Automatic annotation (TrEMBL):
<keyword id="KW-0436">Ligase</keyword>
<protein>
    <recommendedName>
        <fullName>Cobalamin biosynthesis protein CobD</fullName>
    </recommendedName>
</protein>
<feature type="transmembrane region" description="Helical">
    <location>
        <begin position="49"/>
        <end position="73"/>
    </location>
</feature>
<dbReference type="GO" id="GO:0016874">
    <property type="term" value="F:ligase activity"/>
</dbReference>
<dbReference type="GO" id="GO:0048472">
    <property type="term" value="F:threonine-phosphate decarboxylase activity"/>
</dbReference>
<dbReference type="GO" id="GO:0009236">
    <property type="term" value="P:cobalamin biosynthetic process"/>
</dbReference>
<feature type="transmembrane region" description="Helical">
    <location>
        <begin position="316"/>
        <end position="338"/>
    </location>
</feature>
<feature type="transmembrane region" description="Helical">
    <location>
        <begin position="222"/>
        <end position="241"/>
    </location>
</feature>
<keyword id="KW-1003">Cell membrane</keyword>
<feature type="transmembrane region" description="Helical">
    <location>
        <begin position="161"/>
        <end position="188"/>
    </location>
</feature>
<keyword id="KW-0169">Cobalamin biosynthesis</keyword>
<dbReference type="InterPro" id="IPR004485">
    <property type="entry name" value="Cobalamin_biosynth_CobD/CbiB"/>
</dbReference>
<comment type="similarity">
    <text>Belongs to the CobD/CbiB family.</text>
</comment>
<feature type="transmembrane region" description="Helical">
    <location>
        <begin position="80"/>
        <end position="98"/>
    </location>
</feature>
<keyword id="KW-0472">Membrane</keyword>
<dbReference type="GO" id="GO:0015420">
    <property type="term" value="F:ABC-type vitamin B12 transporter activity"/>
</dbReference>
<dbReference type="Pfam" id="PF03186">
    <property type="entry name" value="CobD_Cbib"/>
</dbReference>
């Protein structure tokens, strides 16, 4: 199945290659359309109810536009030229996933910390987090990077993988639904991008971003929990290799106790496991747009994080990536056997 091959090609490319700034990117296009609709509707709607309605319109219009574009690519480009369809779809899958780019950006913070440049560390961190970074010390910078990598395992890797794989499985039973293989992850990416842009709880975005935030919670519900399962499996393997069962036990206990501490029903699923793995506390109070937001900590350990923990967490995410690839190869083998 050429659609499965395109998916695997894009997925594997993201394992080795990060996104390049000068190449047009799907997420930037989605972000631009979100901004355009937001500016337009803010001129029309002024009341709280109006902003709530406009947020719903932003969600619907963007899903229709980008989901529809994915459908057109899958349905018509392949009919014109199979090779062109394969290349375009592979490239889009490559851009949908974000592991290599996240590692690249997180390692920029790591190198800044290693060079003992606090200002550069804060600046590099500000590129990948939404919180204020201008007053963070090294420990909290490291924790912020770790939290971001852990959370984005679900948002940037597992969730789009989950929906593409769901599309593959659906297409196996009915080949009329092959378009779901590309449409589902792009629709997910659209929702996730909207949430990251307008899904805040501050005064400016509380109403206009509510629909995007709620929908993002819904579409991430299953992927976040599957991410936790994959992460626990990887840590279990690591504990066997290191002959240290405490690593896994600690991670599991932290997951059971702290997975719902986060204000998001999904973000804490993976962060709680990493907190246990590192035997430390993550999250806690943070400043957003100059205002202090009180948050409970995730984890019960008191180990002080160090810069090398950023490398350790990235390596765990890469091991998880390999597990997902193996699952897809197994599914591909089953499909070949059936067909």
């Amino acid at each position: 199945m050429i659609y499965l091959l395109a998916f695997l090609c894009g997925f594997i490319l993201d394992f080795f290659i990060r996104d390049f700034e000068k190449i047009p990117h799907l997420v930037r296009f989605i972000g631009s359309s979100v901004s355009i609709f937001e500016k337009l509707f803010r001129k029309v709607f002024k009341s709280d109810i109006g902003l709530l309605f406009s947020g719903l319109l932003i969600v619907c219009f963007n899903i229709f536009i980008w989901g529809g574009l994915a459908y057109l690519i899958n349905s018509f480009v392949y009919r014109i030229n199979i090779l062109a369809g394969f290349v375009i779809e592979s490239f889009l899958f490559f851009q949908i996933f974000a592991k290599a780019s996240l590692k690249f950006e997180s390692m920029k913070v790591y190198y800044a910390i290693k060079s003992d440049d606090i200002e550069k560390s804060r600046k590099e961190l500000s590129m990948i987090v939404g919180r204020d970074t201008d007053r963070l010390d090294y420990e909290h910078i490291i924790k912020a990077v770790i939290e971001t990598v852990a959370e984005n395992m679900s948002d940037g890797v597992v969730a789009p993988w989950f929906y593409a794989t769901l599309g593959i499985i659906t297409a196996v039973f009915n080949n009329r639904f092959t378009w779901l293989i590309l449409v589902l992850p792009i629709v997910y990416k659209t929702i996730n991008t909207m949430d990251s842009m307008i899904g805040y709880k501050d005064e400016k975005y509380f109403y206009i971003g509510k629909a995007a935030a709620r929908l993002d919670d819904i579409v991430n519900f299953l992927p976040a929990r599957f991410s936790a399962f994959i992460l626990l499996f990887v840590i279990f393997i690591i504990s066997i290799i290191k002959n240290n069962s405490i690593i896994f036990t600690r991670s599991l206990k932290s997951f059971v106790k702290y997975r719902y501490i986060h204000s998001s029903p999904n973000a804490g699923q993976t962060e709680s496991i990493i907190a246990g793995f590192l035997d430390t506390k993550l999250l806690g109070d943070a400043f957003y747009f100059g205002k202090l937001v009180k948050k409970r900590s995730i984890g019960y350990g008191n180990t002080k994080v160090k810069a090398d923990d950023i490398i350790a967490v990235n390596n765990i995410m890469y091991f998880a990536y390999i597990v997902l690839l193996i699952i897809n190869l197994i599914i591909g083998g089953i499909i070949c056997f059936i067909l």
